[in-house]
């Protein structure tokens, strides 16, 4: 029934594409044999009847409507402008596409997963939304002698991205850009030049394990394996570790892990569950002078520190308990300050300093249990030893 009336009524222009703010005069022409006078017709836009003040009867078979200052289309499939007879039946319809030409795409960045592909992402320019169907095409070519090609794999999870998965060349720079086009215009991004070896990222480190360091209540040992996909490449990886308390969403990041595949976390809370993650940055693959791109974080691995015997031990002597707690708080404050200044990190020097600090603290504890004179002498010896440790390192 609907297709029958397509032959007896026509809207002109049919499916126009218009700039936002434009004016439009559309006409509904009906076949004379239909026996319908134009004055009995009415218009709707997206299901809403338009006021008759916008109509004009051009002839017994032609009714026009004028729309001023058109707003952007509500959806990329267009706004529905429909001509009806006096009973409300649809005679003809047209889609209005109202939008803007694309602006120059921005923030074009690319990365390569283990040198096996090249994925690029970008952002639409300006406000980003043209309100009409806009096509983005990623183009690339070898810098000096290559033929222009188009990326074909737009199935990446990001909305504005494409992956080049074959016929990639190493040691040769590429020129890459994005073209945006719709029925109102086109725009081209800036061209970026890159070598795939300069934008490599890896899979996250595998085999991450977190374990206790003996009965040390404030430490955990973290170990992991280098990304296997790059084992045959010449590169110097560097790693980052982040960790958080079980009941917290705030991660603490350690930047100075270097290229080793193990690390000791110090200054942790006794008897506490920690979640730990590791990520990798491949540096200088095949002699590249640029740092790589950080991988995703590994899956969280959890472990708990041992409970502190001093914190768990009780006392029936409220006075001695208070003195002990006061001493413990003072030592913990001193300890955490020391860790932040000297032992935050995974270098062997930091760990040796930390272990030396623990030995000095043990000597200090023994001094407290001696008579006052010997206690004071022990404290002075401990202070001198601390000074020697700092100077030595």
TrEMBL record:
UniProt keyword terms in alphabetical order: Disulfide bond, Glycoprotein, Immunoglobulin domain, Phosphoprotein, Receptor, Repeat, Secreted, Signal
Biased composition (Low complexity): 313-325
Record bears the keyword Glycoprotein: yes
Basic residues compositional bias, start-end: 364-379
GO molecular function: cytokine binding; cytokine receptor activity
Family under the similarity heading: Belongs to the type I cytokine receptor family. Type 3 subfamily.
Record protein name field: Cytokine receptor-like factor 1
Organism the protein comes from: Seriola dumerili (Greater amberjack)
